[in-house]
Every structure is written in structure tokens, then in C-alpha cells.
Amino acid sequence: MYDEYPYRVRTGSRRSRRGGTIVLAIIFSLIGGIVGSAVTNVFNNSRGETQTGAPVVATEIKTTDEMGAVAAVATAAMPSTVGITQEKTQMSIFGPLTSTSSGSGFIADEGGYIVSNAHVVGSAGEKVTVLLNDGSKEEGEVLWSDGGLDLGIVKIDRTDLTPMNLGDSENIQIGALAVAIGNPLGLDLQRSVTAGVISGLNRSLGGEQGGYMEGLIQTDASINQGNSGGPLLNAQGEVIGINSAKIAGGEGLGFAIPVNVVKPILKQVLEHGNTQTLALGIGGYSVSMLEKQTGNSLGTDGKGVVIINVEPGSPAAEAGLRSRDVLLSMDGNPVNNMSSLRQSLYNYQVGDQVELEILREGQKEKLSLTFQEYSIPVQGSPQPQEIQPYRGN
User: Which of the ends of the chain has fewer CB neighbours closer than 10 A, N or C?
Assistant: First the structure.
């Protein structure tokens, strides 16, 4: 059994009409084959567009003697920060029981596209209520949601909104200013601002039930229940992360998903209205996770994904991937862990061919994989104890 680090994913304030508080736990899936496609572009300043294709907003952060950097960032970001609520009815021994959850989000495009956490907005196709800065409420539809990445995109029927500028989460430094905005403890404390610094990068969190999340930004800016989905901003007022998790019982230990994760997905949603579903057809574990739990080295400097199982008839099977292979790169881009593998799949479409670099029995090999219209079957997670680590020289 894995002895993983317990953490609490903030689900927002969840109040039952019959009283009491319901706390939800989010399990981050480790099964491969998370899907999608989009092409990630660099910022094109000459056209005034971001990676997502959304126009850059001319938001200038100015400080004065009376207004410091935090206040200036907060003032610029407030119009683009939203509250999100969702009602769900479940049957209980007492009859129908309705609960309301609340969280945060931010406007990513003036056409009404909002980014938040998957555990805040729910599944694709569900409805939520979005509270805007002017006090108005709009019904929103969840266009896309990925529980493995804990990200979701909501669309509301408005075209007069002020979007936030998306920064580059690959270009942040430890010690830099970090400003978090959200709705701690529900909408009663909406758009609360906390500030701190970037405390760490590429953090990993394990869940009590086998979940695992990697590549996170750590900050000591206070992130409380209800801040989920809100923006983490730099000194220029750009979104560098999506607030997502807090260590249970820990103060100053908040975590955000790097904004670069959602950029290619948002670009595809803006261009096509949805995302295309792809799957490799594998189950796997991050090398770093496996090595940490077993104490053995796989000979890859802690990077890569160990293939646990390959589904028959899948793109992975057609390419010749096998159980116990270690996936190192895709088209020359490093596959550092399961999180980076999930993200990279959003860059491709059905019919695309990619070159995989793998480690097989201590030797590096290259395979060619073609993406197909394929959905991985739902099944239980394989047991990592079945994998015998490669003990290289």
C-alpha cells in the first residue's frame, strides 16, 4: 500500500439546507489516457494575443504612495474574479437533501468563458450560478471538466466582460509576490485578498485514497475553503495559477495549478467550443512517486511514467508499448510525470503521429504512436507493488 501524504482539497463552502457542513474529498486519478487536443502557441505580442487566442487586456498595474503592489493588483483583478455556486440534490434516509457548494473562478475571455476547479464546477454539461463583480448572477454551463487536472471551464451568456491576463507559470521565481483572490468560507466573504510569496515550485501532493497531483505552485498566501478556482496573481496582475489545495492543518501551505496547464485547453474551447477526446490506452504511475514509495531507483533521475498496463486495441498497444516500459518523452518533449503526460495529450488530435522515447529493460528505444478515436475502459487502479524496479548501473 502507498503511504501517501494526506491533504485536503478545498471544495468551497458546502451547506445543507438541513444543516451541517459537507466536506468533499477530490481524488486525482492516476489512470493514463486523459484526453484532449490543442496546439500551444507562444505569446504573439505583434497581434496582441495570448496563447489561448484571447486578446490581451491593457491592464496596467500602477503603485502610488497610498497604494502598494498588492492593492494595485487586487484593484485591477477584482472585476474579473467571480463566485460560483452549485446546488445538488441527493436522496437520503430522510428524503431529498439539497446542498449548495461555493467556490471561485476568473474570467478568461470577454465572451463569457470562466476558468475554475473541476471540484468547484462539477462535470461537463452541469449547470452552475456565476456571481459577477457588479452583483449580477448568470447561469453557466460547464463546457469542459477534468478531475485528474482539477480544472474546469464554464460559459455564461455575456460578451461585455473584462478578462484577466494569463501569465507564464514557467517564468516564475521562488520569493516572488503572490496574490490570491477568492471567496473564503463562501460568498459572504467574497473577493477576499491575501498576499504572500511563491514558496516552492513543482510540488507534489498525495491523497489518502491513491490520488496524486504534481507540478503545483506552493504559496504562503492564505488559501482557505472557498478560494478554490480563484486566481493566483503575480506583481503584474497576471494569472500564474489556479488556487486548488491546502494542506490539512497546515498554515501558509497553499497550492495552485500552474496556469500553463489550462492554456492549450482554453484555446481549443475558444476555437471549437469543446475539446476532443483522446486516449493512449495505458495505466501508469509517475516514476518519482513510485521511487518515493518503494525506495528503489528506476534509473531515470526520477522522471518519466511507468506503464502498468496496456489496453488491447489501444493506440499504445498498436505502438508496441508494454507493461513495465518507462515513457520518457513524446515528440522530444520530456514526460516528467503523469501530470505532464495528461497535459501533453491536449496538444494532439486524432490522426496525429508522435514519437515516443521509452526505457525498456535498461535500454532506450523509440516507438511511433498514432492517435485514434479510442476511449479507455473504466477499471480499477493497478497495484504498484507489481512493478519490479529496474536497477541500472
Answer: C
